[in-house]
Amino acid sequence: IRLGIIVAPVDPGLNKKEWNSILFIYQPSRILASENVCKKLSDKRLLKMSNDDSSEYFFSILKKEKESTRFLTPHSNNPTLILYTSGTTGKPKGVIHTYKNLFVDNFPKNILKISTKDTIFSCSRMHTSYGLGNNILFPFHLGASVIISRVTPDPFSLQRILKLKPTLFFAIPSMYEFLLNYDKDLKSLFKCVRLFISSGEKLYGDIFERWESAYKKRLLECFGSTEMCHPLISNIPDREKINSCGKLIKGFEIKFDKTGRIFYRGPSLSPGYYGDAKLTRKRFINGWFKSDDIGYMDKDKYIFFKGRTSLIFKLNGNW
Predict the structure, then answer these.
(1) Beta bridge partners of 289
(2) 132/83 Cα distance (integer angstroms)
(3) Angstrom distance (rounded) from CA 16 to CA 120
(4) Residue 276: strand, helix, or coil
C-alpha cells in the first residue's frame, strides 16, 4: 500500500478451485504466499514469503533483494485495496476501497476510544474487513499495540496469548459461544480485557447474557460490511441493548425501503466491485449501497436486523 500497489488480501484457507476463481478475475502481477498456499497452486506469479516454521526464510529474501526507493503520495480517491466478501451468501465479490476509506477512524476513536495504552488481539484474520481494521488499521491510526497469532485461536493458544494482556478482544459470536465452555480456564486471564467486541454474525441475547454471567463483562456488538470497510453501527459501552447491533456511528447514514431492506452510505463506502460493472450499478445507487439486510430502527434509534433477502428462496412454490 505504501508503494502505491493495489493489494488483495485473500484467505489462505481457500481451496484450489476458490483460489483459481479469484486469480482468474483479479489477475495479480504477483502472489505473495506462505508455503502452505504455494503447495496448493502452480503459478509463475507465486513468491514464497515464508516456510511457516520460522521467520528466517523471510529475512533471507530481504538480504537478496535491493531496497525499493519508489514511494508515492497517491491521490486519496485512488484504489488501494480489494477485499473479498465471505461468499457465505453466494460467489465471493472483490470490493474495491480507496486510500481515503482506510483512514476513517470514527469507530476506533470515538466508540472504542483506542489509545497508545491499548493492546489489541483479534480472532478474525486480516483478509476480512473486520480483521483488517482490528489488526492493522486501528492500531496504526491510534498508536495501539497489536498481537498477531500465527495459529487459529483456540482455548489453549489463547491462554498463551492472554499472558500478553490484551485490553481489546475482537471475535465473532460463535467464537464467544465456544469460549463459554472454557470459562474456568480463561476467566482470570480475561481480566486484562476492557472491551470484548463482537461482529461478523448476529449476537443473540442468550450468548450476551451467558458471557456477562461467566466473565462479569459485557459483549459490545457492532456491525460493518465489506462494502463499507469499517463498522458503521455500534453499541456504546455500558449502554448496550440486547439483540441490537447499536446506533449509527457519526458520519454514516442508513435508510429502509418499504420491505425493510437497508441502504447505507458514509465516508468509507466502496466505489464498487472489481471487474463487475453490472453488479456495481445494481448495488451502488446514487451514493447509497443497497444491502441484502432487512431490519428496523426502534424509537431510541437502536437498529435491529431481521434477516437477509439473499437467504429467502422458493420451495414448492412458497417463499
Answers:
(1) 264, 284
(2) 10
(3) 32
(4) coil
| HSE-CB of 196 using CA atoms within 13 angstroms | 20
CB atoms within 10 A of CB 203: 27
**What CA–CA distance (Å, rounded) separates 70 from 157?**
39
Could you tell me how many residues make up the chain? 319
User: What is d(CA 31, CA 43) in angstroms, rounded to the nearest whole number?
Assistant: 9
| pLDDT, block means (10 residues), the chain with 319 residues | 89 86 90 90 90 82 83 87 72 90 94 97 93 94 93 88 96 95 92 96 93 95 94 95 95 94 96 94 96 93 86 61
In this prediction the pTM is: 0.91
For residue 138, the SS3 value is helix
Beta strands in 172-287 (DSSP E): 195-198, 219-224, 231-234, 247-248, 253-256, 261-265, 272-273, 284-285
Phi/psi of residue 177, each to 5°?
-60, -40
- List strand residue ranges (DSSP E) for the chain, in order: 31-34, 46-50, 79-84, 94-98, 119-122, 145-147, 168-171, 195-198, 219-224, 231-234, 247-248, 253-256, 261-265, 272-273, 284-285, 288-297, 303-308
Q: Which residue, 227, 184, 214, is CA-closest to 95?
A: 227
Q: Give the cell for residue 133.
A: 481494521
Residue 145: phi, psi to the nearest 5?
-85, 160
* Short-list 265, 255, 252, CA closest to 296: 255
Partners of 122 in the β-ladder: 170
What is the Cα–Cα distance from 275 to 25, expressed in whole angstroms?
A: 7
Q: 265 forms bridges with which residues in the sheet?
A: 253
Between CA 190 and CA 98 the distance in angstroms is 36
User: What pLDDT is attached to residue 89?
Assistant: 47
- Rounded to an integer, what is the distance from CA 149 to the centroid of its chain? 16
